Amino acid sequence: MFRQTALLALALLPFSLAQVSEDFENGWDQTAWPIYAPDCNSGGVVTLDNTTAHSGTNSMKVAGAGGYCGHIFFGTTSIPSGDVYVRAYVKATTALTASHVSFITMPDSAQGTNKHLRIGGQSEILMYNRESDDATLPDLSPDGIATSTALPTSVFECFEYYLGTDGTIETWLNNSTIAGLDSGPGITNANDAGWTSSTIIPNITAVYFGWESYGGDVNTFWYDDIVVSSSRIGC
Ligand SMILES: *[C@@H]1O[C@H](CO)[C@@H](O)[C@H](O)[C@H]1NC(C)=O
Ligand SMILES: *[C@@H]1O[C@H](CO)[C@@H](O)[C@H](O)[C@H]1NC(C)=O
Ligand SMILES: *[C@@H]1O[C@H](CO)[C@@H](O)[C@H](O)[C@H]1NC(C)=O
Ligand SMILES: *[C@@H]1O[C@H](CO)[C@@H](O)[C@H](O)[C@H]1NC(C)=O
């Protein structure tokens, strides 16, 4: 019933607007939302969970194991061409630590084959990481770290970001801009030197939600009410 309503609502939107909108109330469609764990997968588990949700009763649970091969993600390849906005409600069990982790990973053809634009944590704050040169946004200096924020735990947080065709990146947590995670033409960020040292403009082919750690951190995340669109979604 809800899916039909959602499809009708989508059909009424301008063609380019909403690419994907999923609340998982009708279950986990593994064709539309496949598992993603390139190279290896030992330990990470994705399940549909009806014990916690942002809306309704269902969400997607990712029990991520430690180490790179403990990684696992699920996601969508329905990405608009041009500007991309992604909004998801995200609940973490454990706070971000000093170690590098990712909870969103996006294959990025601009970086090359099997290279990813990643969103995750390091130095206890949210950040982007570009796999090909390991650059971070923000720079992980004390000043850079201070321009980002921790990811609260045990609560569904509204997390949204924008990837523009001109290289702009903007990021919001609970509808508030995270200054350190914004970069691009027209944006002044004193802590994006590492990021802007490359001319790569992300050109993602998919968005995957899950867990990947490089130092051994373990975490369980839930994801709900995911929207991928070519315009701002909001909370
Ligand atoms: C919730 O999920 C459990 C385990 O998958 C299942 O056995 C149960 O029937 C589900 N409950 C509802 C209300 O769908
Ligand atoms: C979101 O922000 C509002 C207003 O600043 C605050 O009251 C609320 O607790 C925040 N919610 C979460 C989930 O962080
Ligand atoms: C989110 O932020 C925008 C811009 O600051 C504001 O216009 C909008 O009302 C906010 N929405 C919510 C739900 O707080
Ligand atoms: C982005 O990648 C797609 C293929 O996935 C390609 O068609 C398009 O030309 C690329 N865009 C840019 C700006 O390179």
UniProtKB/TrEMBL annotation:
Pfam families associated with the record: Polysacc_lyase-like
Signal peptide segment: 1-18
Taxonomic source organism: Lachnellula hyalina
Keyword Signal listed: yes
InterPro entries attached to this UniProt entry: Cip1-like_core
Keywords (A to Z) from UniProt: Signal
Gene3D superfamilies (UniProt xref): 2.60.120.200
Protein name: Cip1-like core domain-containing protein
Ranges where the Cip1-like core domain occurs: 23-231
